[in-house]
Amino acid sequence: MPIHEKSLIRPENLVTHEHLELDGVDVSGHWSTFITSRAVTDYNEQMQEEIASLPGGEFIHRCWQCGSCTNACTINAINPDFNPRYWIYLIRMGFEDELLRDKDILWQCVSCNRCTYACPRDVNPEGVMKATAHWLELKGHTEKKPSTVFDEAFSEQVFATGKIEDGRVLRQFFARTGQSLFQDWLVQMIRGLVSRLPVGLLMKLGFATLKRPRTRGWADASAAIEEYVEECEANARKALRLDMQGAE
Amino acid sequence: MSRPVLVVGGGPSGLSAAHALAAAGQRVVLVDKADRLGGAPILSGYAKLVPSGEWARDAIGGMVRRVETNKLVEIRKGVTVKSFTGSPGDFRAMLSDGKTVEAGAAILCTGFTHFDSVNKPEWGFGTYPDVVTTTQVEQMFSSGKGVRCPSDGREPERVAILLCVGSRDRQIGREWCSKICCTVSANIAMEIREALPRCNVYIYYMDIRTFGLYEDLYYWESQEKHRVKYIKARIAEVTSDGKRLLVKGEDTLVKRPISIPFDLVVHAIGMDPNIDNMTLSAVFDVKLQKHGHIEKASTYSNMSESSRAGVFVAGAATGPETIDDSIAQGQSAAMAALALVRSALLEAAE
């Protein structure tokens, strides 16, 4: 029978000393490998409040750990390490180190909201996943995801002009993520468009690409949106006790 | 006129039984070993009661006054029953003050005894002054002094409430659930959060048994409105690092040992059978059930009967019970006793 506790030992917690003497006993080398304590020595009450202050995280404190969200989860069915129930607990207790171990899979939520409809306490786990991904970014634990870069290019354009010019979004996305604009699929798609679309429509597209028309009277709306976005971001940074410039 | 009904114990069920009997025109002799009526809620200084939120001194105090001012109720305080002989309709009780009471029936409303936390030494009660019981926290509220650390009077910044202290524990021969401690703890946790908003409250539980309507009114409310945190763990040990208390156990969800500093640790103590139950059993010739509570003769046909005809039982004497259910059982026992003494009267008239 394998020893279950062995599975709880993490490689980074194994310590071997090349030269160490304890009370006159030589404990150097592999045969005297130490295991660092796994004991949790404190809670961090602030962490739950931070997540709760971000959009989507408001109801995290309702969770009673029944696991309905994880059982309902689309991603969990594919990747058993994707466990919203567990992450909610880590946040509630303030076990930041444990949460950060999963920072590279936490963003995989596809927002299908099956958890939302399964949750008996209306925690809104999907919202908590969003808030947590946001929190990881704001705290500087994760880099901007490609999808965030795309969202920024997209929304910047909407805020500025009230319109979307797909070509520009794509160009900005590829430029900002350091990718070539000449993607095979894109080249093929444009060739197809050029050969199939009526000339009049092509000219219209070309005009939009070059002239970047705005929605008439957009300036007021644009200013209002900018103000609101800034307000939201300032609130989030304040709640996370970050300075206004950036993470860290 | 029929003989009086002897009510033993002046807590919620005894007060309720005495009042119900008197309301039906029946004479009552109410004896209590304490020098005051009111039972645990008054003698132990409970604060606001579940679920009404009324202060114990108002709610139970009102019941006491109602009985004390009733001419049909004769009250004997500071007195115990030494012997109880005779048959239904014709009992004779000898009291510890040497007097006798002729009674048609008796109702045992003898309640419970709070679990003594010293019997779980690993949880630090009696060793560290800042380990207290739910009863002590109730007293902190009812005295108006508020929740403070007994060691130095400071306001606690983090409080742990340990559930099932003296309940559900074969190690100490207490295999029952004390029924009320989960709800009482949720209530106390909310009161602490209201009084000291900067203080975080953690409840360590095995199961949460805020039964019936207490589910959302206490359990959910404490989590959702008051941000009380519930952690599934049975604590192994309460020690001290010299400054604060250390609560040690296993966090079952992260599979890691915990050793968390707290300012105040509260034992949610359970309800033991009344410490006098062996004596009561001998004096009244009633059986005790497996856990040491007074045995009920039947579950359904008449819930107030004990194993001896003419001796009825109500409230926490039969097992852990809420105050409102104890009151209902007191009325139920009054009804049963009344039927007995009245039928004895009718037979005598024939």
In terms of DSSP E residues, the strand content of chain B is 25-35%
The succession of helices and strands of chain B, N to C, reads EHEHHEEEEEEEHEHEHEEEEEEHEH
Mind telling me the C-alpha Rg of chain B?
22 Å
The unreliable regions of chain B are none
Structural write-up:
The complex is a heterodimer of chains A (248) and B (350). Chain A has 248 residues and is mostly helical. Chain A has 3 domains: 6-35, no CATH class; 47-138, Orthogonal Bundle (Fumarate Reductase Iron-sulfur Protein, Chain B, domain 2), CATH 1.10.1060.10; 146-215, no CATH class. Chain A has 12 helices and 4 strands. A two-stranded antiparallel sheet of chain A has the order 1-4. A two-stranded antiparallel ribbon of chain A has the order 2-3. Chain A is elongated. Chain B has 2 domains: 5-111 and 274-349, FAD/NAD(P)-binding domain, CATH 3.50.50; 117-271, FAD/NAD(P)-binding domain (3-Layer(bba) Sandwich). Chain B has 8 helices and 18 strands. Chain B has helices spanning 12-23, 40-43, 56-68, 134-142, 181-195, 214-224, 277-284, 323-349, and strands at residues 5-8, 28-32, 73-77, 81-87, 90-95, 100-103, 105-108, 112-114, 131-133, 158-165, 200-205, 229-232, 237-240, 245-251, 256-262, 264-269, 271-273, 311-313. In chain B, the strands form 5 sheets. A 5-stranded parallel beta sheet of chain B has the order 3-2-1-7-18, with helices on one face. A 5-stranded parallel beta sheet of chain B has the order 9-16-10-11-12. A 3-stranded antiparallel beta sheet of chain B has the order 4-5-6, covered by helices on one side. The two termini of chain B are 14 Å apart.
Give the structure's gist in a few sentences.
The complex is a heterodimer of chains A (248) and B (350). Helices cover 51% and strands 3% of the residues of chain A.
Compile the SSE list and pairings:
The complex is a heterodimer of chains A (248) and B (350).
Chain A: E1 14-15, E2 21-22, E3 25-26, E4 34-35, H1 45-52, H2 68-72, H3 74-78, H4 84-93, H5 96-100, H6 114-118, H7 125-138, H8 146-161, H9 166-176, H10 184-196, H11 199-211, H12 218-239
Antiparallel strand pairs in A: 1-4, 2-3
Helix pairs in contact in A: 8-9, 8-12
Chain B: E1 5-8, H1 12-23, E2 28-32, H2 40-43, H3 56-68, E3 73-77, E4 81-87, E5 90-95, E6 100-103, E7 105-108, E8 112-114, E9 131-133, H4 134-142, E10 158-165, H5 181-195, E11 200-205, H6 214-224, E12 229-232, E13 237-240, E14 245-251, E15 256-262, E16 264-269, E17 271-273, H7 277-284, E18 311-313, H8 323-349
Parallel strand pairs in B: 1-2, 1-7, 2-3, 7-18, 9-16, 10-11, 10-16, 11-12
Antiparallel strand pairs in B: 4-5, 5-6, 8-17, 13-14, 14-15
